[in-house]
Amino acid sequence: MIGDKYYFVDLVFYHRILKCHVLVELKLAEFSHENIGQLNTYVSWYRKCMMREDDNPPIGILLCTHKNHSLVEFALAGIDNQLFVSKYLLELPKKEEMQRFIEEQLAAGDGGSADHQQTLGMESSDDKGGN
């Protein structure tokens, strides 16, 4: 409860190794700066009301269907909380694409090239800079 209203984050986990709450907000649309403001509110509330003395500050993760890297960069600028934005797939890649990806990774032995991950829609750009 914040003020006199109830708000609910989509998922909350406690990471035992990092010793912090991890708040996950799922959006069925592309990224907007309003989403990061909402997540920042939840993370700030958890920091003030739920965090214990021996906890590390909470982390917020926003998952959306499309990520505009430039907008993410400016939306996160000046925010002290650890917030991360990434995109997700609405459906899994086709079986043939997954098989080809796995075979290429096994052959290369490097854990996955960024180019091929982007081809499959599996880019891993969750850093604050939005890269």
Structure, described:
It is built from four helices and four strands; from the N terminus they run E-E-H-E-H-E-H-H. The protein has 131 residues and is an alpha/beta fold. Strand 3, helix 2 and strand 4 (82-87) form a beta-alpha-beta unit. Residues 116-131 have low confidence and may be disordered.
Which key features would you list for this structure?
single chain; 131 residues; alpha/beta; four-stranded mixed beta sheet; 34% helix
Shape: globular
The H-and-E topology, N to C, reads as EEHEHEHH
Number of strands: 4
Strand content: 15-25%
Tally of contiguous helical segments: 4
Q: Which strands sit side by side, in order, in the main sheet?
A: 1-2-3-4
End-to-end CA span: 34 Å
Radius of gyration: 17 Å
Draw up the topology in text.
Elements: E1 11-15, E2 20-26, H1 33-49, E3 59-64, H2 69-76, E4 82-87, H3 95-108, H4 114-119
Parallel strand pairs: 2-3, 3-4
Antiparallel strand pairs: 1-2
Quick structural gist:
With 131 residues, this protein is α/β, with parallel strands linked by helices. It is 34% helix and 18% strand. Strands 1-2-3-4 form a 4-stranded mixed beta sheet, with helices on one face.
